[in-house]
Design goal:
5-stranded parallel sheet; Rossmann fold
Length: about 375
């Protein structure tokens, strides 16, 4: 009995000493020895643009990161993301660097956040469509207002495309009412811009504890996270993800729209706003004899909380009846998986750990299902 008490006492004292040490020196040790391995705050490759708000530097080559993942990042002379193996010297540049069969545009999902370009779905699609010259026009935090402004600018500079494929994201509706606005063909930021940088997920006791430990007890948080990850890996705990990712206002508007979260726009006003920007893009492309196609895909929150035939899907299905060459429904394949798998298994297999973006298998899954529809 005494032995058990002594051991318990030893554990409690050890934990208290560790927490005290964490309070006094945890942040320093984290920044000096742990944080140095991560590059997820490095956004030096993103620069401001006077027309369409922001873009990627031209001829960029460097190491960047997303969450806990480091990866190489390269762009061509146009500022379009490419494989680092594709970089060529200026002396070898050809005369048709601004002519493409397909331009694919979207946000961080389409940019390929978290992975080298060869593992992103745009690159994988390009490798399968060998007879097509494809440009990746996507950049993180893009939305329909920017899609229009950027493509309008590129066309005015002599860029040529046979087809533009827009990978529309669930978060786009939020970004176009909280972040950006078209004014005289130029993107300006809204007064509510700071709000679009947050998830808007409801604050729970769990998220408050996570926020406190991740800021005040950095080493404790890292140790706890590692233990939880290992318990998930060996199947003792079920993988659920973070509330801030699963219940973000950027994805839950399709089933839980609250006007206060969306710049006081009603649901119909938000939808009309984003549709107006896409209609401008459609009109622009028709005037330049360029086909427009649209692809949609789910966030993890869609798979957990929504239905397959959701509002997001229906909005763009209806839009494409008169505006698109093709409509690529990439939501259905994920819901098909849920017929035989739990949400937690699908989430873990196809999305970055505790994130919303696709992991390597997710990019492959998107590629396979896109190509099935494209070839048909």
């Amino acid at each position: 009995m005494q032995s058990n008490f002594s051991f318990t006492k030893f554990i409690i004292i050890t934990l208290l000493i560790f927490i005290l040490f964490d309070v006094l020196a945890g942040k320093y040790i984290y920044k000096k020895f742990i944080r140095s391995n991560y590059k997820d705050v490095d956004r030096s490759y993103i620069i401001a643009d006077p027309i369409y708000h922001h873009k990627i530097q031209s001829n960029f080559k460097g190491l960047v990161g997303w969450k806990y993942i480091n990866y190489s990042f390269c762009t061509d002379v146009n500022g379009f993301r490419i494989s680092c193996d594709e970089i060529i010297s200026t002396s070898k540049l050809s005369n048709n660097l601004n002519e493409f069969d397909i331009g694919i545009i979207g946000n961080s999902f389409t940019e390929g956040a978290g992975y080298i370009y060869e593992k992103s779905f745009v690159s994988l699609i390009n490798s399968k469509l060998k007879n097509k010259k494809i440009a990746n026009l996507a950049v993180l935090s893009y939305s329909p207002s920017i899609y229009y402004a950027k493509i309008n600018f590129l066309l005015s500079k002599g860029y040529k495309f046979d087809e533009i494929i827009v990978f529309l994201d669930l978060g786009n509706i939020v970004e176009d009412i909280l972040c950006y606005k078209l004014k005289n063909e130029v993107i300006v930021t809204r007064k509510t811009f700071p709000l679009c940088l947050t998830s808007g997920a409801p604050t729970t006791i769990k998220t408050k504890i996570r926020e406190f430990t991740s800021t005040k007890l950095r080493l404790t948080y890292e140790l706890y996270s590692k233990i939880i990850y290992q318990l998930i890996e060996i199947g003792i705990l079920e993988y659920k993800g973070r509330d801030s990712e699963i219940n973000s206002i950027k994805s839950n508007w399709t089933y839980d729209y609250k006007t206060k979260n969306y710049n006081n726009y009603t649901y119909n006003e938000s939808v009309e706003n984003i549709l107006a920007n896409m209609k401008k893009l459609s009109k622009l492309l028709k005037e330049n004899d360029i086909d427009l196609s649209v692809a949609v895909y789910p966030w993890p929150g869609t798979l957990k909380n929504d239905i397959e035939e959701n509002k997001y899907l229906k909005i763009w299905q209806d839009f494409c009846i008169t505006n698109c060459k093709n409509f690529f429904n990439l939501i259905k394949p994920f819901f098909d998986l849920l017929e035989n798998e739990k949400f937690s298994n699908v989430y873990k297999k196809y999305y970055i750990y505790e994130g919303i973006h696709f992991n390597e298998e997710g990019h492959q899954f998107i590629t396979e299902n896109f190509l099935k529809l494209y070839k048909n």
